[in-house]
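Good morning,

Both structures are done.
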Amino acid sequence: MITLPRVMLVVLLLVGGYTFVVAPAVAASSGPAVRWETKRSEPRPTFPPAPGRPVAFPQAGKAFFGVFTSRGPADLTEYDGFVAAAGRQPQVMMFAQGWAGAKTFDRQPFDRIVNRGMLPMLAWEPWNFRSEPKQDASRGDQPGYRLSRITGGSYDAYIKAWAAGIKGLGYPVAVRFAHEMNGYWYPWCESANGNRKGDYVAAWRHVHDLFEAAGAGNVIWVWSPNVAYDGSTPLQQLYPGDDYVDWVGLSGYYGTGGLEQYQTFDQIYRRTLASVTAISKRPVVVTEVAATDAAGRKAEWITDLLRSLPKHPEIIGFLWYEAVKETDWRIAATPAAAKAFAAGIAQPYFTASWSPDMTPSVVRRSGGTS
C-alpha cells in the first residue's frame, strides 16, 4: 500500500539525508492477489446489549493501539505477525478503500475485524489509485475526483449507498475520509487537481451530511492530516469544525531515503500537535506511524514513541503501519523491534479494551498540547 515517499525525490537527493515527517503514500487495495480470507464467508457479529451506562472507548487514563497493514482484513498474514510480535491483540484495525476500487458496499471486511475484537477504521479514499501518475508533482491529478465534483453531487449515489451499508452494520465504524489533505499527493488535496481554497471543507461537510441524513450515527469521523512540513497547506484552512469531526488523526513516519537524521516522536509531531489542538477540542489519534531500521535505531525509536505517548493525554491511541514496501516497517521484522514494542505496550496505559457497545470518547483530555 505504500508507494513513493511524499516528498520530491530530487530535493531529497540534493539534501542528502532526511527523516520522514510525511507518511509514505498509500494506495487502497493494491498489492498481490487476495488470499483465501476474502473468499471465506464471514459470520455476522453478534453481541448482547450492554447493561447500564455506556463505557467510553478508550477508557479514562488509557490509550488504545491499533494496526494498519497492506492488505487489511483481506489477508491477515501481516496482522497475525503483528499480534505474535506484540504479544497482544490490538483494539483497532484500519484498512484502505478507494472509491474506484469498490463499486458496491461489502460488509465482509468490517465483520472480519469486529469478529476479532477490534474497532474497524476505514481509510475512505475518493480516487482511482490505479491511475496515479508516476511523476511526483502530478500524483494528485485526477479531474474526475476533483473536490467540487464531490460537493456538486456527482458521487451522491455512491456515498449514500455506503452510508446505508455502514448504518446497517449495527456497530461503530471509524471513517478516516480523504486523509493527508494538507499535502499535494492526492486528488482531494487543496493544492492539487485544480482544487481551490475552501473546497476540502465543503466536500467533507457534504459527505458527512449525507451520512447524517441516512441515519448513520454509528460513524466516528476521523479528520486526519499529515504532520506539517514546509509548504504544506495550513490546517486551519482545512478543518471542517468540531461539529463534523469526532477524532483528529495524524500521519507521521520516522525513516530514511539514504543518510539518517534521527528525530524523536516529539520532534516529528510537536509542531502539528500544537496546531491541531489550537483549532479543535477533539481527541487526537496517531493514525499512521512506523519507523525504519536503516540506521539500526528502530527499536530505540519505538521505545521513545511508547514512552512519549503517555505524556500526551490529548492522544488517545495510535495505529502502527505493519507492512513492507520501500522499507520494512514491521515490528515483526526484527526481534529487537518486536521486544521494544511488546515492552512498551505492556504499560498499564495501553490496556484499553474495545467492544461494539462502547461509546467513542470525543472530548480531548486535559493537559494536552496547547
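Second structure follows.
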Amino acid sequence: MDMREQLRQAFPSYGPHWDAAIDAGVDVSLLLHNLELTPTERIEQLQRMTELYEALRPKDAAGDATNP
C-alpha cells in the first residue's frame, strides 16, 4: 500500500490543503507530532538537530567548517 493511502486512512481530512500535502508526499504524522510539542520542546529539538548537523558537517584542514 502506498504511504499516501496509509496516511489518508490513519488521519482524518483537515481540508483541501491537508489532502494536498498528503498527495505531495508530506508525512503529516510528523506535522502532528511537532504540533504536539511545546515551544520549549521544539527549540530543544532544533538545538539537537543543529548540533548533529554541525558534528556531521565536513571540516577543512584548519578544523573550520567548509562553506556550503
